[in-house]
Write a structure and sequence with these properties.
The structure holds 2 protein chains of 2 kinds.
Chain A (H helix, E strand, L loop, with lengths): L4 E3 L4 H7 L7 E4 L5 H6 L7 E4 L9 E4 L3 E5 L4 H6 L1 H6 L1 H8 L4 H6 L2 H6 L5 H4 L41 H6 L3 E6 L2 E6 H4 L18 E7 L6 E7 L10 E10 L2 E10 L6 E2 L1 H7 L6 H11 L10 H20 L3
Parallel strand pairs in A: 1-3, 2-3
Antiparallel strand pairs in A: 4-5, 5-8, 6-7, 6-8, 9-10, 10-11, 11-12
Helix pairs in contact in A: 11-12, 12-13
Chain B lengths: L23 H6 L14 E7 L5 E7 L1 H5 L3 E6 L6 E2 L5 E7 L2 H10 L1 E6 L20 E5 L2 H7 L2 E9 L2 E2 L7 E6 L5 E5 L9 H7 L6 E4 L15 H13 L3 E4 L2 H7 L2 E2 L2 E9 L5 E10 L19 E7 L15 H18 L4 H7 L8 H15 L1 H4 L11 E12 L5 E8 L5 E4 L9 H13 L6 E4 L16 H28 L6 E4 L2 E4 L2 E7 H6 L6 E8 L10 E12 L4 E12 L6 H20 L30 E7 L2 H6 L12 H13 L10 H12 L3
Parallel strand pairs in B: 1-13, 11-12, 16-17, 20-21, 27-28
Antiparallel strand pairs in B: 1-5, 2-4, 2-6, 3-5, 7-17, 8-15, 9-14, 10-11, 10-13, 15-16, 18-26, 19-20, 19-25, 22-23, 23-24, 26-27
Helix pairs in contact in B: 5-6, 8-17, 12-13, 15-17
Classes of the chains: A alpha+beta, B alpha+beta.
Amino acid sequence: MRAFEYASPTTKEQAVALLGEKWGEIEVLAGGTDLLSLMKDDVAQPKRLVDIKEVKELQGIKYAPATGLRLGALVTMQELLENPAIKKEYPALAQAADGITSPQIRNAGTVGGDLCQRPRCWYFRDGMGLLAQDAKGRPLVPEGENRYHAILGNSGPAYFVNPSSLAPALIALGASIRIFGPKGPREVGAGEFFVTPKTNGEREYVLKPNEIVTDILVPPAAGARNATYEVRQREALDWPLAAAAVALKMSGARISSARVVLGHVAPVPWPAPEAEKFLAGKTVSEQVAQDAGASALRGAKALSQNTYKIQLAKVAVKRAILRAAQGRV
Amino acid sequence: MPDYKWPDATRRALMGKRHSRIDGPDKVSGKAKYTQDRKLPDMLYGRIVRCPYAHAKVVSVDTSAAEKMPGVRAVTVIQGPGKEIHWAGDEIVAIAATDENIARDAARSVKVVYEQLPHFVREEDLSEAGSQIKDPEEKTEGDPDKGFKEADVVSEGVYGLPVITHCTFESHGSLNAWEGDDKLLAYISTQAVSDVGSGYAQPLKIPAANVHILQDHIGGGFGSKFSTDRWDVEAAVLAKKAGKPVRMVLDRDEELKVAGARPSTFARVKVAAKKDGTILAWDSTSWGTGGLTGAGAPPLPYCWRIPYRLKHYAVATNIGPSRAWRAPNHPQACCITMGALEDLAATLKMDPLDLFLKNIEMTAPRANLYKEELLKAAEMIEWKKKWHPRGDTTPGHIKKGLGLSIHTWGGRGHVSENRVTIHADGSVSCELASQDLGTGTRTVIAIVAAETLGLPISAITVKIGDNRYPRSGASGGSTTVGGVSASTRRATVDARDLLFQKVAPALNADAAKLEAVGGRIQVQGDPTKSMTWKQACARLGATPIVATGKCIGGRDELTNQGVGGAQMVEVAVDTETGIVKIEKFVAVQDVGYLISLKTAESQMYGAIIMGISYSLFEEKIMDPTTGRMVNPNMEFYKLAGIGDIGRIQVHMVMNKEQDERGVIGLGEPPVVSPGAAIGNAIANAIGIRVPNLPFTPDRVLAALEKRGGLS
């Protein structure tokens, strides 16, 4: 790990004033579960760390039936998991946090960090850049070891998958992300927060280098049945091979409208409008859930080694729908 | 002639019973010091500059920036211009600096120019290996052609195990300090305390006698820590240059890239049999890699004496060097053989347990043992109740299946010498330059000594991990327990008999008629003529009793070799996701005369967990374009966690017959079968063979697809 400056502001204004105009030179430190690994691997080489843990206004969970949920960016995954209101109203979020089967990461990792963590792509982590290219700029992923890479949105130049545990659920629940920068606060929809980079220097989200995530706002679930299902091979800490989050608005036994969002399958969390359209007006059954999974993956295209992920993503959609319908946490 | 024989079951207070390991409290409290915990005043931190290419020639090396960096104390070029490098991660330059970060900065500042050369890192498909394939080894025994001619059925299959790493929890490393010009003190993480010093002596041109090796505890070796490595020797060179101790410890990524790999083996197998299940003949073509040198042929067919024809191709690759991995070649041979036989049973529509039992004579000389073990394992897992023909027909996407395997290993004790001292205050020490790999070696030594001297285990001080103690062999091949228990037994019997001679006059008895039991020295069978151990030792005065005992290895009668073992497993496969879960794993194992039941069982658990891990998760994944390992970390080099191992039940075969054989090692045999048993259970569950380990969702789903679609 290279030497760096360390700053510990106590207000968000101070925090953004300490940030810079260029990615990579200054990084925001919260739980550090990802950033410190990147620094140890020399993938991130910041000259300054801005530790936002002392910015108290970024903490705390608030829930009111009328206004919904507000998560401070510094809320830990464990706090989220243990919150009774979240468990009851937003099981999709609790289930996503529960999928991080490492108590250490749940205790240190924050919800803001979950959104801003960098891709787990092993080429990126080996210093080959976000787009995983060789010295001549040729992509390594399509003919390389791509078993964990994207099956959607993978026509290049990005092939990694978005690593966020919470993002699919947040998008399905219609959440928005509040951002703070030198010009003050702004808000974007959770679905608009993530972008697919075109060059190695870009990031996978709309934050500017001098902005931070401050809050996550989730509207009232209003009875929408919601769930997350992650396909992971191991019980020990393991990144999902595919995941899906769904939110189903019910009218009696029928689905009046649905949100279906896939995770770990594309460079961004991947909404599945075809599946949503398919589900509208249907009564949930195993067959309906399975067909919804199939329609969600209709546009999927495997790389040389990851055909199996298409199947896993279908199953994730199916099981998320069934789990939501059962209303079990 | 002293009576060294192991006491039988009626005459042992401690041996064969469950005792907690004596270093357990130190380990769980953090008191136990591993090589990585060692620090010396003014110690420097070593760092290696490694080649990023899988095959290259070094054109130039410029270390000037590193040498100028404040805090850098020494720099050496390990492989300079002109050297051909054969794997990514090979050592180029070594640096010592005052702290770790400076050492890393300095390493990054070294400019090495390489000429890249073509590399080859994927051997799974032999047809793509081209000129990397070496001339085959071929071997025939019996008349396999006759068998294939007379066969009613011929079963064919493909089986394979990839290269995996040792992934020891404590990475390789050492702390090296010079005492004067020609004496080296090295704390090194090693499986060979007595012998590892010679690995320093030769390249450093100092007498082997001048290398002092110390190691209290080791965080795993599994066959990867027998010798010094280049980074250890270079650390000693740096230490001399800098005039300060140098610690060189590998990072996790270095550990996984260069510090140990198990060779791969893939095989196409044909087995011939009669309709009634009589196995007739074996034919296999196998290949694998252990890096540049390829890999040796696995002993096929494994455990079964079937007339055979074998062809094995070694494939040279640029994946890095292989090392002995717990039971070298056995897991590969076992998985291929037991897989092929289970496939044969499925072809014959036979229960594989029946097929094994029908042909059990082919496992001579251990046929009776295997039969007994298979029946015991079957009872433990309720085989007859739970087994179904291939393909679980229960509705739903979870399919369950049973699999079985048998294995064998040698395990005779190595050469060992133990020096026992009985002091006048009653304290007892055992000194031998052995090592405890976490297997319970210290505990075994203490149990044997305590049993022989009639003392509690806590009365024995075990001193190992220092090459100034009498020599004891390296811990490899499951040879340690046989070696150290035999040397301890002889040393303590001799020491005890010397004590008997000292105290016999006071007890007015013949020394030969004394015994040491329950903390007393007494006339055999007569507690009225006795004295306490302390009283006895007090008679020694200023001269303690010192006795040495040996295990001579080879023909030593206190140890033996040749074990069998049977393992069975029930798995649950999610046929929608291809995820395999272990439901229950049972293992039955003989080990001759068993000294320490609890640590033996613990060895079994550990081996089975390691076996589950390599069966389901582990793989050294190499990128074809860069030739680099893409998963040199604990996120993607996946190991089984506690939630992944199911319920494990072990049973040690303990009886008079086993007692009479002598002590046999246990470190390796139980790790041999899990891949085979789990692979067979998956085939039984889902109705088709998944050819290659690890049994990951992609491989399981691909097999299901081949079977005719997903459920």
